[in-house]
Design goal:
The structure holds 2 protein chains of 2 kinds. By secondary structure, chain A is mainly β. Chain A contains no helices and 11 strands. In chain A, strands 2, 4, 5, 6, 9, 10 and 11 form a 7-stranded mixed beta sheet that branches. Chain A has a 4-stranded antiparallel beta sheet with strand order 1-3-8-7, with no helix packed on it. In chain A, β4 and β5 form a beta hairpin. Chain B starts with a strand and ends with a strand. By secondary structure, chain B is mainly β. In chain B, β6 and β7 form a beta hairpin. Classes of the chains: A mainly beta, B mainly beta. At the A-B interface, β5, β9 and β10 of A face β8 and β9 of B.
């Protein structure tokens, strides 16, 4: 059974870089799927951040693109997210996600449990 | 990027049927998916590719689509179906997009 587990600091200071890792078990990060990140500010809706297809084909939310780096480490079966110059508006639960196969990119069929990241000075 | 529009909230009597809609131009080209999210939990996929249902999802959940509108129907709503429901899709620029969510209350 596929499992996605997010990890990283729960508190990040304003203007610094948010760094998260998603460890995938029960499946290979190099298989025919996109992997990505979605966030949800407290009490609000879902916002897609970015996605990657091994070894490095990427798509980004245009509103976040200038601040986002997404990468994949096949040896560790992990994907990573970096979001720089964070502000309080970046406070959210961050979810790791697996899309459907390459032809079904719009579908997210597996989600991590999510990790809350708070941005504060 | 494109947008998906959902009604913010809907209520349904226990055992009755409720339909949730999602509108957006991208739905004329790309399939909609539907996600259920309960408080404090991650979303789960309940409908994909317009009518597909993942294993483990009860058959009271069904999907349909016409033109720029996708719908999720819960036939015989149960108390455990009370949740937020989000539609999702993609646009022609490979943006993943979500509707604003519909809060379903089972009375």
């Amino acid at each position: 059974q596929l499992q996605l587990q997010e990890s990283g600091p729960g508190l990040v200071k304003t203007s610094e870089t948010l760094s998260l890792t998603c460890t995938v078990s029960g499946g290979s990060i190099s298989s025919n799927y996109y992997w990505g990140w979605v966030r949800q500010p407290p009490g609000k809706g879902l916002e897609w951040i970015a996605s990657i297809f091994y070894p490095g084909y990427t798509h980004f939310n245009s509103s976040l693109r200038s601040r986002v780096t997404i990468s994949v480490d096949a040896s560790e079966n992990q994907i990573s997210l970096k979001l720089n110059s964070v502000t309080a508006s970046d406070t959210a639960v961050y979810y790791c996600a697996r899309h459907g196969d390459h032809a079904d990119y719009g579908k997210i069929d597996n989600w991590g449990q999510g990790t809350l990241v708070t941005v504060s000075s | 990027s494109s947008e998906l529009t959902q009604d913010p909230a809907v209520s349904v009597a226990l055992g009755q049927t409720v339909r949730i809609t999602c509108q957006g131009d991208s739905l004329r080209t790309f399939y909609a998916s539907w996600y259920q999210q309960k408080p404090g939990q991650a979303p789960i996929l309940v409908i994909y590719d317009k009518t597909g249902r993942p294993s483990g999802i009860p058959d009271r959940f069904s999907g349909s689509s016409s033109g720029n509108t996708a719908s999720l129907t819960i036939t015989g709503a149960q108390a455990e179906d009370e949740a937020d429901y989000y539609c999702g899709s993609r646009d022609s620029s490979a943006n993943v997009i979500f509707g604003g969510g519909t809060k379903v209350t089972v009375l």
